[in-house]
Amino acid sequence: MEIMTTLVFAGLTVALVSGLLWRRHALDKARRQTLEGLAGRLNSTFSEADNFGLLAQLRDFDLFSRERRWLGRKGKIRNVLRRQFGKTQVFMFDYTYVVSTGKSSKRITQTVCFADNKDWYLPNFKLKPETWWRKALAMFDKSDINFPDSPDFSDKFWLTGEFESLVRKTFNPELQEFLIERPPVHLEGNNYYLLAYKPRKALQADEAHVFFEHFCQLVELLQKKEGQLELLNLAELQPEKVELRRDDQSA
After folding, report:
1. d(CA 32, CA 79)
2. Do 192 and 122 meet the contact criterion of CB atoms below 8 Å apart?
3. Domain with 199 in it
4. Inside any domain, residue 104
5. Is 176 helix (H, G, I), strand (E, B) or coil?
6. Paired strand residues for 51
7. How far lies 142's CA from each of 110, 126, 131, 138, 145, in Å?
8. Backbone dihedral angles phi then psi of residue 45, each to the nearest 5 degrees
């Protein structure tokens, strides 16, 4: 009787695990097909695997080093969309990693946008929403870079960086206005890399479409011009002109 009970329990366990693996495979396949279709609408190429070595390039960013601190494992990058934007390579992809609490583990997938331009000279910075608890933390943590002339920006974002003067120069009024109107959740910059993501959230197709377009507009603001990093005037990104650019790219 005990042997029979053990066999039944083992069979149910195998069936449950097999069912969970099948469901994950089905969801991953549906996700891949959705993003491959989105790549066509965004005039981007699509690669199921990380054929560009992105994980190695991004390992020093906080998002990509987080899991290694917990488990010593590497996350995985899949479903990579790529568009060449002048001298800038722009990517959007799914980043999957595992977080362990000791007793259990959780698989997390989130959407990430990444830009790479070897002509950029971005300061090392991090930009996050300024939540209520960050406001309370500001009483003890003075690392937040605020702009007295832009209280709206300072109220919305927690901005930190290694070289404050360079960060202030980069986040000029034009860039501040753009971010206030189209706020990404998290931004990280370092030298010629720019990263944007929404923590622990895999965006659905419509959300990912908007997020990618906003990120590309942000890249336009950071394009190198006449040998120096300059932020282009926001007047060049009026809605009708953005739509015209999209039409030109689709032609």
Report:
1. 6
2. yes
3. 2-121+192-250
4. yes
5. helix
6. none
7. 30, 15, 15, 6, 8
8. -85, 160
The count of structural domains within the chain is: 1
CA-based torsion, 53, 57, 60, 61: positive or negative:
negative
Identify whether 116 is part of a domain.
Answer: yes
- Kindly report the number of other CB atoms within 10 A of residue 127's CB atom: 23
pLDDT in tens, 17-49: 555 445 565 777 888 999 999 999 999 999 999
pTM of the model: 0.75
CB 185 within 8 A of CB 147: no
Tokens of residue 9, six digits? 């329990």
In a domain, 186, yes or no: no
Helix (H) or strand (E) holding 225: strand 224-225
* pLDDT score of 138: 58
The one-letter code for the residue type at 30 is: A
SS3 state at 189: strand
Per-residue pLDDT at 182: 81
Q: Give a yes or no: residue 210 inside a domain.
A: yes
Residue 92 has pLDDT above 70, yes or no: yes
- Region class of 88: left (phi > 0), else alpha (psi between -120 and 50), else beta: beta
Output phi, psi for 129, to 5 deg.
Answer: -60, 140
User: How many CB atoms are closer than 10 A to CB 194?
Assistant: 23
Separation between Cα atoms, residue 138 and residue 204, nearest integer Å = 34
| Under 8 Å between Cβ of 211 and 111 | yes
Q: How far apart are CA 65 and CA 44, in angstroms?
A: 28
